[in-house]
Design goal:
The protein has 260 residues and is of the alpha+beta class. Helices cover 21% and strands 29% of the residues. It has 5 helices and 10 strands.
Length: 260
């Protein structure tokens, strides 16, 4: 028995999320079916971070165990030939048995993209969150800096979040504009359910002038989800990367989505 890790890129628009579901297509099910074809045996994947319906990934990390011997090239080309065009395995490699895509990860990063324009894009309608009201990205960035460090993020997690603790540590939360697109980059040791989208919704509320910069810290300290703004659209969210200890040498490519 040996273990393989893989980096996966996908457009989540047509899927109910990463996790396999009986009622709807999922990224996990498509990948497991393709890899099982190459292995001629069932393959079960475990990922670094399960994404929700319509959320995308630049480089999701997953692993599986198998007793089947195939070259890296055979796994990569064989599986990609069986995958739909909106899912691709970018790389695949053997890893030590101690590696675990989820539990070995020490941090994760996401990017959230907002199209701030009068008219929504026909090309990127399912790739960005559209907001027609003018957003002040500098105010949003200033407000976001209050969240750096270790905090209780109960005010920014979904009601159905199953995490035992709402405490998370944000390493950075940067917001900047390029033309009509605003990018939110965030890295933390772990994330709560809907945490990034809930933060994005509240930051956009500040950017539109509905609240001042200090309001975000008040919401954080309240630990009350009802005081925060609405959850932002899933379309603008991208899982960017999972980070691992140096002992696990992975072929990560560090992709980030950039729109013109």
């Amino acid at each position: 028995m040996h273990k393989l890790a893989l980096g996966i890129e996908y457009d989540g628009s047509s899927y109910c999320g990463w996790q396999r579901q009986s009622h709807s297509p999922s990224v996990q099910a498509e990948l497991e079916q393709a890899l099982s074809f190459v292995a001629s045996k069932p393959v079960a994947l475990i990922c670094a971070g399960r994404t929700d319906t319509a959320v995308h990934a630049c480089e999701q990390i997953a692993h599986f165990e198998t007793e089947i011997d195939r070259s890296n090239r055979s796994w990569l080309l064989g599986a990609n030939c069986r995958l739909p065009k909106d899912i691709r395995i970018v790389w695949i490699q053997p890893v030590q048995l101690s590696f675990h895509a989820r539990f070995s990860a020490i941090a994760r990063s996401y990017r959230y993209i907002i199209q701030n324009s009068a008219v929504p894009s026909a090309l990127f309608h399912d790739k960005v969150c559209w907001e027609h009201r003018k957003l002040d990205d500098k105010l949003m960035h200033d407000a976001a800096q209050q969240l750096i460090g270790k905090h209780d993020f109960n005010a920014f997690r979904a009601a159905g979040c199953q995490a035992k603790s709402p405490v998370r540590t944000i390493e950075y939360l940067n917001i900047f504009r390029q033309g009509e697109f605003i990018y939110i980059d965030i890295k933390a040791n772990a994330f709560l359910h809907h945490m990034v989208r809930n933060l994005a919704g509240s930051l956009m509320s500040i950017g539109m002038g509905d609240h001042d910069v200090g309001w975000l810290l008040q919401v954080l300290k309240s630990k009350n989800r009802c005081l925060a703004a609405k959850t932002a659209s899933a379309a603008g969210l991208y899982f960017v990367r999972a980070f691992y200890p140096a002992e696990f040498v992975l072929q990560q490519v560090q992709r980030k989505p950039v729109l013109f």
